[in-house]
Automatic annotation (TrEMBL):
Alphabetical keyword list: Cell membrane, Ion transport, Magnesium, Membrane, Transmembrane, Transmembrane helix, Transport
Transmembrane segments: 311-330, 342-362
GO cellular component, as recorded: plasma membrane
Membrane topology: Multi-pass membrane protein
Catalytic activity from the UniProt record: Mg(2+)(in) = Mg(2+)(out)
Pfam families with a match to the protein in the record: CorA
Protein name (record): Magnesium transport protein CorA
InterPro entries for this protein: CorA_cytoplasmic_dom (IPR045861), CorA_TM1_TM2 (IPR045863), Mg/Co-transport_prot_CorA (IPR004488), MgTranspt_CorA/ZnTranspt_ZntB (IPR002523)
Source organism of the structure: Amycolatopsis rhizosphaerae
GO MF terms held by the record: cobalt ion binding; cobalt ion transmembrane transporter activity; magnesium ion binding; magnesium ion transmembrane transporter activity
Subcellular location, record wording: Cell membrane; Membrane
Family, as annotated: Belongs to the CorA metal ion transporter (MIT) (TC 1.A.35) family.
Region named Disordered: 1-29
Described function: Mediates influx of magnesium ions. Alternates between open and closed states. Activated by low cytoplasmic Mg(2+) levels. Inactive when cytoplasmic Mg(2+) levels are high.
Length: 368
């Protein structure tokens, strides 16, 4: 395990050719290595399903398991870099391509086999709390969880600040019967944990979509199409996390590798059932949001038509007094009722009568 060099020691090293000027501005300080312990969340040895007491490094843990010829190692990592994970990769025989994927992240859910090691990628989800789905800018936050599965070890690599496995590990430590099946039981527990969280997130998203649907069809409210498209984008994040995972889980349930015993495969079948439920929900979300977009566009068009009819009706009524006033404003001497005492009141009555007639016609046709 690399040690952190002291800053004082670094300052004291100068260029021998420059003497005291070796501390000059041109010398580049070497990077300070970060110890692997900063990335290891937990490292434990399990024998017959029970966790052995004591703290061990990753090298000590695998040596202990192979000395006993029983048990397995579970190492949890959080966002390691290439340099720090390299020691574990060499000790546990991890494939370089899988290690690269685990470090860089941004992978789609998948299951790959490298010699005697499985590499599985899962997307984690977190529901972002908000006051209303019609004003939220983000609803679902995603992360990633990778797992290396071997005959006597499992290494989990987590990216993101949510969906931590600390509580899951504590629960498994209290139930050693579940871990007697070996590291495959941990892989099942992790997958089941992620998929169960999918169910929680989709239930919350379903409530948001129902609330948005209520706003769309409410008589005096209007939801922008942009907000519904935002919700569709969040549902797309769900699809990217959920849909590709179906094939890896089904392969594990069908005996894709001897690393997963028969008694653990049946549990993966249960996970597959839950994942199918989530997939169906997400597919329904997409269809429903497409319908809401169409309904919103239709409602906007109807509102615009209604507004246009109102504008047209008021313009027609305003045209009547404008036309009559325009005629009598031409200042001709010989015009009807021009010199009659009751001409002005009569013109006002005619204007008002025509306007009232038009108003009743427009009201009867629901233009006003």
């Amino acid at each position: 395990m690399p040690a952190i060099p002291s800053l004082g020691g670094l300052r004291g090293r100068g260029n021998p050719r420059n003497g005291a000027r070796g501390n000059g501005r041109n010398r580049v300080q070497p990077p300070i290595p970060v110890p692997l312990s900063a990335y290891i969340v937990d490292c434990a040895v399990y024998v017959d399903g029970a966790r052995l007491p004591g703290r061990r490094t990753h090298a000590e843990a695998i040596k202990e398991v192979r000395r006993r010829r029983e048990g397995f190692v579970w190492i949890g990592l959080h966002e390691p870099d290439q340099q720090q994970i390299q020691g574990i990769a060499e000790m546990y025989g991890l494939h370089e391509l899988a290690v690269e994927d685990a470090v860089q992240a941004h992978q789609r859910p998948k299951l790959e086999r490298y010699d005697d090691t499985l590499f599985m990628v899962l997307k984690t989800l977190r529901y972002v709390e908000h006051e209303s789905p019609t004003a939220a800018s983000e609803i679902v936050e995603t992360g990633e969880l990778m797992a290396f599965l071997g005959l006597d070890f499992i290494i989990t690599v987590r990216h993101g600040a949510h969906s931590g496995l600390g509580k899951l590990r504590q629960d498994l430590d209290r139930e050693p019967e579940r871990l007697k099946a070996g590291p495959a039981a941990v892989l099942h527990a992790v997958t089941d944990h992620v998929v169960d969280h999918y169910l929680e997130v989709t239930s919350a998203v379903e409530d948001d979509i129902e609330e948005m649907e209520t706003h769309v069809f409410a008589p005096r409210t209007m939801v922008s199409a942009e907000q519904i498209y935002l919700m569709k984008r969040e549902v797309l994040e769900l699809r990217r996390a959920v849909m590709p995972l179906a094939t890896p889980v089904r392969r594990l349930a069908e005996g894709f590798t001897r690393l997963v015993p028969e008694d653990v495969r049946s549990y993966f079948r249960d996970v597959d059932d839950h994942l199918t439920t989530v997939s169906e929900r997400v597919a329904n979300f997409d269809e429903l949001l497409t319908t809401l977009v169409d309904a919103t566009v239709a409602k906007i068009s109807l509102q615009q038509n209604t507004d246009m009819r109102k504008i047209t009706a008021w313009a027609a009524m305003i045209t009547v007094p404008t036309m009559i006033a325009g005629i009598y404003g031409m200042n001709f001497d010989y015009m009807p009722e021009l010199h009659w005492k009751f001409g002005y009141p009569l013109v006002l009555v005619v204007i008002l009568g025509i306007c009232l007639l038009l108003y009743r016609i427009f009201r009867r046709n629901d233009w006003l």
